[in-house]
Structures are given as C-alpha cells and as structure tokens.
Write a structure and sequence with these properties.
About 50% of the residues lie in helices and about 10% in strands. It has about 400 residues and is of the alpha/beta class. The protein is elongated and about 80 Å long. The N and C termini lie far apart (about 55 Å). The N terminus is likely disordered. InterPro entries: DUF3631. This is DUF3631 domain-containing protein.
C-alpha cells in the first residue's frame, strides 16, 4: 500500500444522537485519564510515563494551531514484535484526522495532502519507509522537519490553469508519529522527537486489540477527546507553563505543547509532564557523556583534544596532537577511519569551527602547534572538563580563572 489516507469519517463510526448523549465529553482531566487507561490496556511500554506521553501527544493533535510547535513522536522498541503497529493503530483511532503512511512514493505527496487541512501523519516501519538511501527521502524528511513549527512550508511543483508547471508554497505543518526499530533518523529530526519505548509482551500483561470488539468504544473515546480539547482550546492557547530552567532551545520547543495541554487539564498532569521533561533532559545528558550522540566531526575534535592533551603541557605541536588523536581514536582519526586526520585537516576544522589557528612554539622553536589557553573557551561552551596544566605565570592563571568562572 503506497499511501493510505484515512479521514476521521473513514475509520471512526460517528455515533447516533442517542449514543452521543450517553457519552459526554466530560472535563479534560477526566478524558485524559480515560485515554491513559485505554492505551495502557493494549500497549506495553518500558515505563508508565511513556503511556502518559502517548496520551498527551494524542490530545495535542487537536490544538496544534494553539501550541505553535508539534513534537514528532518516535515509537521505538528493543526488538520486532513489540507492538509498534498496535500503538499506531490506537493512535489512529484517537488523534485528529489520521493519515496512515506505510510507504511514501513521492516527496511532494505529504504537502499536497496537507494543503487540504491539518492531518496527523502516522508512519509505520519508519526504519524501512524512511530509508535514507531512498533518493526522495531528503524531501520527505524536509517536510517532516519544517512541519514541526507553525508556518512551515516547502515549494511544490503544480500545474497551472494552462497546464504549465509552476512552484507553489504548500504548508507542511502537521503532527507526525514515526514507528520503527531504531530508525536511522537525521540528527535534526531526532532533536524534534520525543521517544516512547515499547517492550515485547511475553507475559500477556496487555489485552489483544481485537478491533471488531473494541472499535466502537475507541471511537466514542476519540469523540470525548476531541470535544474536550475543543472546549479547552482557548485555555491551551493561553497557557504559559513553567518549564525546568535547563529546558531550553529545541528541548523547550518540543515539550512546551504537551506542557500546555497538561496545564489546561490540571490534576496530576502538570506533575507528569515535569517528570517526562526531566527524564528526557537526563537521557540527553547521559548520551552526551557516553558519546552516543551523532555529533559533527568538529565537535568530536574539540572533545577528543581534551582527552589526549598531555597533563601539565601548555603547548602541543600539531604533529604530536594528530598522532595522539589517531592512536586514541583510530576509527575516527587514525588508520581505521575513512581518510585519517592530517595536520592540515585538523587546522582547517579548528579554524572554520572555532577560529583557532596554530602558532609557533613559545620557546622560539620552529614547530607550530596550539596552546592550552586557545581551547579553554570552546571546552567550556561544550561542557568539557579541560586537562590540568600548570599556568605559566600569574597572567595566564588569571586568564584561566576568568574563563572557568564565565
């Protein structure tokens, strides 16, 4: 199936007037609790917080015009058969105007669909359907990335009234959920994602999703959620939740929409979103500490130089620094890397990335290299613990102290 576009009317059986009256929308707090309970019946996540995350994300799809940004939901698992497709099926019955995309054959397809209104895009098997080797994926990922923020758009070729091709800006703004086994997402996409981790249900802890039996209840729940979010639309738009002090930049952009829904709901939900944000920030911090993030080579270089700098040295010749880097990190800079690091290559990256240039050794020797003091500001900004050196006199000690105290 290439792209299966499913409107709400296609998968949600609209209840009759009598059944609708017997299923009141209720308060947003009560409805979120019901959605949370529903998802936990059928989806097994690593932690209970991931269920709460799915609930808040499903709710925010109805008010993305008010939340300004819409985080990408990444549904991941440690192994196949962990319920990723099941999780997407339940989201399909809960979110705003779902659009199920198993494969995408054209990079212009999503903008064309979104031109007719906001949809919630649900992409299954993202590890295969978003294969970076596919030549159209650059355009698809551009749609996913730009559509993360209100006003996002991209040019698409369309035929005018005379049959001539012309470009037109089309909106890409839409909620997106991606399900797949550790999909190879670009870094700029990963920073826009909030992640749910599923576990295989070997012990039968969750119920089977027999849609013939549960679809009507799911549809009623979706109507309750839609009505509750519509009633809370103004509250969500006016909400200005206080986020953790360190939640800044892209981290703030992706969590604030869900925090606004949580604040509008009240009850336990503001505490839940605070826990989720702190967990995400801690995971990112651990990834940086363990070197698990896909950092640019220039960032690796500044970090690796701190690792190999000889304790006590104030100056290191370029050739010696390159040799130490190649020996310590052979797959990145040495013989096991694609090209291997050269003095000229290192100099180019340091100049272009940090405005750090080599100089002659202070002792008057002809060797060129770098002083410890040249790196201290960059190490500080990347939160790298600098190697210890013995300052050469009070002036250099004062410079080091000033840099550390900024």
């Amino acid at each position: 199936m290439d792209l299966e576009a499913i409107d709400s009317s296609d998968i949600h059986a609209e209840p009759s007037a009598s059944s609708a009256s017997s299923s009141p929308s209720g308060s947003l707090l009560g409805v979120l609790d019901k959605v949370d309970e529903w998802i936990s019946r059928f989806v097994l996540t690593t932690t209970a917080e991931d269920i709460h995350l799915m609930t808040l994300w499903a709710a925010h799809t109805y008010v993305v015009e008010q939340t300004y940004t819409t985080p990408r939901l990444q549904i991941d698992s440690v192994m196949p058969e962990s319920g990723k497709t099941t999780a997407l099926e339940h989201l399909q019955h809960l979110v705003r105007r779902p659009l199920s995309a198993s494969t995408i054959s054209s990079e212009a397809l999503l903008p064309r669909v979104l031109e007719r209104g906001i949809r919630t895009i649900l992409i299954d098997e993202a590890d295969r359907s978003l294969d970076p080797k596919n030549p159209i994926m650059a355009g698809v990922m551009a749609t996913i990335n730009t559509g993360y923020k209100r006003g996002g758009s991209r040019p698409v070729l369309v035929k005018d009234s005379e049959g001539n091709w012309t470009d037109r800006e089309m909106s890409t703004f839409a909620p997106v959920a991606l399900a797949g086994n550790n999909p190879s997402l670009p870094d700029d996409t990963r920073t826009r994602c909030i992640r749910v981790l599923l576990m295989p249900d070997f012990e039968g802890l969750v119920e089977s999703s027999d849609w013939e039996d549960i679809e009507e209840d799911a549809d009623h729940l979706r109507i309750d959620l839609e009505m509750a979010m519509e009633a809370a639309r103004e509250s969500v738009g006016n909400a200005r939740p206080t986020l953790p002090e360190d939640c800044k930049g892209r981290m703030r952009e992706k969590w604030r929409p869900l925090a606004r829904v949580a604040q509008a709901a009240g009850g336990r939900w503001p505490g839940i979103i605070n826990t989720l944000i702190h967990r995400d920030m801690e995971e990112r911090k651990m990834e940086r500490a363990e070197g698990l993030q896909n950092l640019p080579l220039r960032v690796h270089l500044i970090r690796d130089i701190a690792q190999v700098w000889q304790a006590g040295d104030q100056f290191m010749p370029s050739t010696e620094l390159v040799d130490l880097l190649a020996a310590r990190f052979p797959t990145r800079w040495g013989l096991q890397s694609t090209k291997g690091l050269t003095v000229q290559g290192m100099g180019r990256m340091l100049m272009q990335g940090y405005k750090i240039s080599s100089d002659r050794e202070p002792s008057g020797a002809r060797r060129r290299g770098y002083s410890h003091l040249q790196f201290t500001e960059s190490w500080r900004r990347f939160q790298v613990e600098p190697p210890h050196i013995k300052p050469d006199g009070p002036d250099e000690q004062a410079q080091l102290d000033e840099t550390r105290n900024r």
